[in-house]
Specification:
The structure is a homodimer. In chain A, strand 10 (240-243) and strand 11 form a beta hairpin. Chain A has helices at residues 46-51, 142-151, 153-179, 182-199, 213-220, 224-236, 252-260; strands at residues 64-68, 73-75, 83-89, 92-97, 103-109, 114-115, 128-131, 135-141, 206-208, 240-243, 246-249. In chain A, 48% of the residues are buried. Helix content of chain A is 35%, strand content 20%. Chain A is α+β, with helices and mostly antiparallel strands. The first copy, chain A, is globular and about 55 Å long. Chain A has a 4-stranded antiparallel beta sheet with strand order 1-8-3-6. A 4-stranded antiparallel beta sheet of chain A has the order 2-7-4-5. The structure holds a DNA duplex.
DNA sequence: CGCCAACTTGATGGCTGTCAAGTCAGGTGG
DNA sequence: CCACCTGACTTGACAGCCATCAAGTTGGCG
């Protein structure tokens, strides 16, 4: 989280769909023409790296869009691995499961993020992926990916980057949980969200949390009450304002100094 | 750690070199002929997957063996990435570093293990790799690897497995730190070591720790005093015997039940 | 022999988990 | 339209686990 800086060179603005008003569970993104050429995520999505600049390959990668309602799974632990997913709209959490029933949030993903690469290991997923919002995901079939990367060293390197991002993401989480206090973990989490929103052309200081206190706590190795208390404390210290899911960071440097100290 | 089970199908026994009696810092492994064909790790090492069964490629992958003295670095964070390493003898720890000076052990590696793949992400390593023992490592140049995997889909899949192992390893560490007590973390650590020794044809119940209490604590998000106390407690409970670095697990099921409970 | 790193063990305090009560918003059904 | 219910959240009281500080032991090495 502190050491990573992905995709900051290709900042693209995109609309952030709100939680759907009960209904058919379909997100607000226009269906549009098939393929990636017209996608508003072009430049952020990994397919940009795979096909650019040979436009021939555009739209051939993504065979299936899937609309997923809030709470539904895109895949579950043990499901056979067939695709990598790019989030087009909505938010997703991944859950790590242990045999004894233990579970923990292992990541939150926002539009433009890739998830599901954990499954390449043994042909089956090592996580659950659950939609937090009604979400829209692009499935990139593994065999297509393999095929492309066999023919194209640059594509292969992009694939490696996806892997390494996941390695670094989890490694950072290790350090956060292993060495930081509750306040520091929470500040790190907020700054990570801030950076990622900012990289997408959205406000770095004001945003909506799409996940519950419980889910945040799970990611950080804290209980939901502790997360709530830290939020309250940060507010009374004048570093942020929080009301339900709505966050406004008053002082990013202030949060940073909490961590470094 | 609980969900992973690597290389258990290809168990190969090999000698475990002890800490060298002060000297030139060269491990006891016989120099032998160049190449992988005569290596005692054949079957465990990832090169087995890359070349088998076409023996032609044997020995072409590994260009450099490096002997590393205890405490020395094989690579450091930020070093440009050029190779993946297979540990031939000795033990290695990897360290995750944050900009603010924070550091944490992110893994321990034993003979046959691969490390260094984190560097593929951005062309530079995201860890320090430090030898705990005098160690002997095989460097596998990245361009060779890339070349091989472009020509050979099976090799490419092996490469993906290496990545995913690192993802899963860190994810498991997250869950351990996020949900387990000090006793449970320590028991998990011991069982993980036990399983890995066992997969190499060594005793699952009796082995030497190559790392300090401080290093174990760092991996688990605990202080060294806590690790020491847990060891003492497990001993007084009759689950293990420990004297310095020497460990004898009396009851593997007993340790397991501590975690599940 | 002496030094130092690694380790053990004790005493104490603080952070965070646990338990509990209460508020609030949203959704459902009468 | 309102009552009710449920899930999410906040806040308080308290306890327990683990970090911290400290002192002493051991073993390896110069």
């Amino acid at each position: 989280m502190l050491t990573t800086n992905f995709v900051t060179s290709t900042v693209v603005a995109f609309g952030l769909p709100g939680r759907q008003i009960q209904g058919d569970g379909v997100t607000a993104s226009a269906p549009g023409p098939r393929g990636c050429a017209s996608c508003h995520l072009r430049g952020i999505c990994l397919t940009s790296e795979f096909v650019s600049p040979s436009h021939a390959a555009f739209g051939e990668l993504v065979l299936a869009h899937r609309r997923v309602k809030a709470g539904q799974a895109i895949y579950r632990t043990g499901d056979s691995f067939s695709s990598v997913y790019v989030l087009k709209a909505g938010f997703v959490k991944t859950l790590a499961l242990f045999e004894d029933g233990r579970e923990q949030v292992s990541g939150f993903y926002m539009p433009g993020d890739t998830f599901g690469v954990d499954g390449m290991a043994f042909g089956q997923h090592a996580n659950d992926a659950i939609a937090l919002d009604d979400a829209d995901v692009c499935a990139i079939p593994y065999d297509k990916l393999e095929q492309l990367s066999l023919a194209n060293p640059a594509a292969q390197r992009s694939l490696y980057r996806m892997f390494s991002q996941e390695i670094v993401r989890r490694q950072d989480a290790m350090v956060v949980m292993g060495t930081m206090s509750a306040t520091q973990r929470t500040a790190t989490f907020l700054l990570d969200l801030s950076r990622r929103f900012s990289a997408r052309g959205l406000s770095a200081s004001e945003f909506l949390l799409r996940m519950t206190r419980d889910e945040i706590g799970s990611l950080l190795g804290l209980k939901l009450e502790t997360v709530s208390r830290v939020f309250s404390k940060l507010q009374s210290d004048g570093l942020m304002e929080i009301e339900g899911k709505h966050v406004r960071i008053v002082s990013i440097p202030g949060l940073r100094s909490l961590i470094t100290h």
